[in-house]
Amino acid sequence: MTDDGPPLWTPLHGAEHRVALEVLIHGPLPRSELARRLDLSAPSLTRLTRPLLESGLLTSADPAQHGSNGRPTQPLDINLDLHRFVGVKLTGDVAYGVVTTIRSSVAESLERPLIDHRPDAVAELVAELIDQLADGRDPVTAVGVAVGGKVLADGSVASSAYLDWTDVPFQRLLEERTGRQVVVANDLVAWTEAEHWFGAGRDVDSFALLTIGTGIGYGLVVHDRIVSSEDSGVGLAGHFPLDALGPRCPDGHRGCATAMLTIGSICSSVGVPLGRTVGYDECLDLAAQGHPIAGRVVHDAAAALGVLVAAIANLTQVDKIILSGDGVRLAVVGAQAMDEAIRANRSTWASDVDVVVDPSGFIDWARGAAVMAIQRYVLGDG
Fold it and tell me: Closest by alpha carbon to 271, among 288, 286, 257?
């Protein structure tokens, strides 16, 4: 322990840090498995883990049976009681907040309506939400906030269409109001990292994340590292062409991912011929019930999704493709059309695409924001 609080990660370096990180992401792990993963001898592992156990950062988990000889072992795990993290996800009209453990398990969640989009007003609301979630109990180690749009390395929001922001120093505004370490990140990057460390992408070397909702999001992890650049958050995947005869998006592109797959485009394509406003779930329900108009729109959208999945698989050759977002039910209702389009756009010699549908909601995206705070704390500012 340190004099000021729970065990710190940042003083750890080299092999000790690798041990603690492996247990955090993949634990609890038997010592034999941990030694194998890190290519360490048993004596070396014992030497490295002893100070981590003495500090309280690692702990011995409940005994479990491992190995063919049937002898019980005590796996090593992270002490989950030492740290709490807050994550906040901002949409255009709601702020979603969570408190998590250091392994991103959600302990509590709250929602607050987001009515005033002025940066100072949003910062005040988020600060109040953080205080509510902290609630004067065990100290919060760090805070993460996820925003849809282009977020710079210093936590400034260069642009956000949902909030109508340009060049807002949002991280600084939050740190001034909360007195806490805050990480502001693009929401798709945050959700990709959540899947990377603690979700469906945890045990693969490479994966792609494709989100469907108000917009189209795309994240990529290769060789166990996220691929990001200054264009992360610009929404480039939404402009990918899928159907030369499809509808046009607001930017004038015909049959792109935005025009074919977003919630708004599907609702419009069903609602206009019906002569009334229809919600997204109603569109999918009607399609599942065999309604001719909704059925055709959803079939075409799901087939277009299959084209996009196949293109990602062909160009990146990732181990897994994760589909998520508040519009991901399209992949369930239109599963047959999507699967047929994937096969039609792949080589007959290609292996099957491992597609995982993750129906996570905005509370989970807030958990992604907490993961950014966890990563900053565990890995340091670098």
Answer: 286
pLDDT in tens, 142-198: 999 999 999 999 999 999 989 999 999 999 999 999 998 899 999 999 999 999 999
Per CATH, domain 202-357 is 3.30.300.30: no
Encoded tokens for 272: 């206009």
Q: Are strands 355-357 and 165-168 parallel, antiparallel or unpaired?
A: unpaired
Model-level pTM?
0.90
Q: Is 356 exposed, middle or buried (0-12, 13-18, 19+ CB in 10 A)?
A: middle
Cβ atoms of residues 40 and 5 within 8 Å: no
Q: Which of 153, 144, 150, 182 is nearest to 167 (CA)?
A: 150
The string of pLDDT tens digits covering residues 37-78 is: 999 999 999 999 998 998 888 998 876 544 445 555 789 999
Q: What are the extents of the domains in the chain?
A: 14-78, 85-193+363-379, 202-357
- Closest residue by Cα to residue 323 from 213, 226, 247, 214: 213
Picking from 259, 304, 266, the residue whose alpha carbon sits closest to that of residue 286 is 266
Its CATH class, for the domain covering 14-78, is mainly alpha
Contact 89, 362 (CB under 8 A): yes
Q: What residues contact residue 119 under an 8 Å CB cut-off, 6+ apart?
A: 165, 168, 170, 173
Count of CB atoms situated within 10 Å of the CB of 126: 26
Q: pLDDT tens across 281-312, in order?
A: 999 999 999 999 999 999 999 999 999 999 99
Q: H or E stretch including 155?
A: none
Per CATH, the homologous superfamily of domain 85-193+363-379 is: ATPase, nucleotide binding domain (3.30.420.40)
